Every structure is written in structure tokens, then in C-alpha cells.
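Appendix B, Record 12. Input sequence as logged:
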Amino acid sequence: MAHHIAVVGGGWAGLAAAVRAVGLGHRVTLYEMAPQLGGRARSLAGDGITLDNGQHILIGAYTETLALMRMLGVDPAQVLLRAPLALRYPDGSGLALPGGPPMISFLRGVAACGGWPWPARLALLREAARWAARGFRCDAAWTVGRLCARLPAAVRQDLIEPLCVAALNTPAAEASASVFLRVLRDALFSGPGSADLLLPRHGLDALLPEPAARWLALNHVEVRLGRRAGALQARPGGWRLDGEAFDAVLLACSAAEAARLAAPIAPDWSTQAAALDYEPIITLYLRCPGARLPLPMMALREGPDAPAQFVFDLGAIGGAAGVFALVVSGARDWVRAGLDATGRAALAQVVAAFPAGTWPTAPTLLRVLAEKRATFRCTPGLRRPPAAIAPGLAAAGDYIQGPYPATLEGAVRSGRQAADLLG
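Logged structural output:
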């Protein structure tokens, strides 16, 4: 039966939900409180250059996100630069996986990792074999630090910690080992190319928000930008959103907004959603004309005076030449220190990390962006709210119960699943 569904939120979860609901034959009205679609993964214009509100990446295991892009007429090969997973540091050390079957690729990559002595490489292979033998499962109370305690310090510092903070945006000492293992299983061992890095060649808007907006317009979806949903009330056979009648409502907004709207209807669900703790991400864009890095994405060693874990050469991906993005995940302490202090430290870090001559002139900051609620803190035993709230009322978002941390793939999957619940 066709319904009139209100989708509240125009981020990647809301867009995925709206597209899925239309595909199920429903009439959809989409509310977005911001003046543009995309949520926390969108493009920002300014300073004569288009930058994103965060340096997001995808991986080959993001099957539903890639499928949605294709459905919307986007060719991932055109908008994403695909490359085998490589966590290379400026000194040339680090892990790089060659192509081929996942297990063989992992074995070859670890064996070729010259930055670690052979005992460290063998220790990683033994530990990975144990994880695989246990089905990539562990005690739900374990942290990633506990899971990897037997690994040599070099492996933890150069591989586990940057992978953990990149995937879960939570420091390894506090992050959920169960979720981390699920990410490793799907990324490194689920099929050829699953661990490949997919780096956006264009602004994030070109990946999903703009194609989705065109598709929704062609399918007669009313998109109400700059419209914050005010009040949700139950009515016989459906709901009223700001006085307008709908058969069903899908809350694809932030957890805080969803908790506010659901509070009068489902206080327990609302309390659970509102209780989530968050971890910031800081993205620093800098300019240095004539500079190029050895790889489009490189790892950096963080420390007390070195905030960033990764640097991206946007010119090597397809963006503006001489523009670079530094990413500080798990950035709670650096947000407290202030963005000015973070910027100074990151500039000093990136100059010191690379050989002399990498930077023809001193890099300068273009923009510093802090997403203070970038993702929920993915800690052991975390209780995330379910998608189902009440009959005809569901929620979608990267914070909803699911196997993944807060990622674009988690958002897209949750949107599709919530639409199915209402269908």
C-alpha cells in the first residue's frame, strides 16, 4: 500500500531512505533544516575553491553506498579514485596491500612491510589468524587496546591505532574491539577490492547529494530546505508533523533532533538516543603551490604536539593543485586546545614529517573545520537506539543499531532499512 511518508533529514541516511521509499511506491516529502542536502558529508563553497566539510573516504566494502550511487546515475569509477589500501608514512614505512584475493593480499602486504622487523610481522599474522579462527568476534567488553595488547608496539602505533581512529573515530584504548573486528572482517577479508580506498575526485556533493536531489525531483519528491521539523504528534492511522498529516514518519536527522521529536511519543527511545556521547573531527585545509606528495593519502604519526593522523593531496585526486587536507580524528583534546593551536601544531607537524624540499614554500592554512559531533564514541557495550520507534515511526542514521561504526555506509544502510520498516 502506498503511503505519504515524511523524511526528516537530508543527509546520506535521509537521502537513502527517501530514494528507497519512492522505490517502494510511496509519496515522500523531505525536510532538511540546512539550506543544502548532504548533512555531515557535503561540499562548502568559499575562498574561490570548493572544499568539503570533512575529508571523507569510502572503501570497496561500501557495497550499498556504491549501489545507491549507480542507481542515481553516478559512475563510481568516474567520481572516486580507487587504490589498494596503503598506510604509508613520509619515511616510506607502513603497510600497503597489493591486489588479489584478500587473504593472500594481506599476507603479502604484511610480509613486505619493511618498517617492522620479522618478529613483529609474524606476530601480526598470528594474531590475525586467531581473529579469523574466532570468526572476528571477541568479548563485547574488550577495547581495541585489550584486543591488540600482544602485538608489538610498532604494529599498534603504525597500523592498529590509525586504522581504529580512522574507522571508529575513537582512540584504540577506548574503542569497541567487537566493532573494530567487524570492520576488519568486511574490509580486509570479505572479497577482492573490499579494502580498496575510494577517494573522492570531486566535492562530496557530486557523489550523492546532488544526484539524489535530481533523482528525487524527477520522481516528484518535495524537498523543503531550510525547514526544521517542529512538532510530531500521533493521529488516528498516522502522524502530524507541524500540523501536516502523514501516514508514516522517518527521522533521519541527528540523534539529538530525533530524540527531541520522539520524546513525547517514545521517551525511552528518546533518552537512549540523547545519551550518546560524541567525538569531534577537525579538518585543516592548507595551500602550498607546487607541492606534491608521494601518494594521494598518507599517514602521519600523531603525538602530544602532532594532532593529525592523515594528509591528503587533493591535487593528486582531482581537486585543486597545491591544496592539502589534514585530518584529526578523535579530536576531543585538540578541540579543547582551540582551533588556532591545532592549526599551528598541524602545520609544524606536516612540515617536519616530510623530507626537505617537499614544501617549496611554507604551507598556509586555508580553512579549519571542526565537526564537534562528528560521530558517536564507539565504545564497548554501547547501547545504540533501534530503527523502530513506534508503528509508522522509524529512525535512520549512522548512530542507529547496526554492525558498523558511524560511517557513510552505515548511514546509507540505515536509511534503506528504515524505509523498509515503514513499507
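Residues 118-133 form the longest helix (16 residues).
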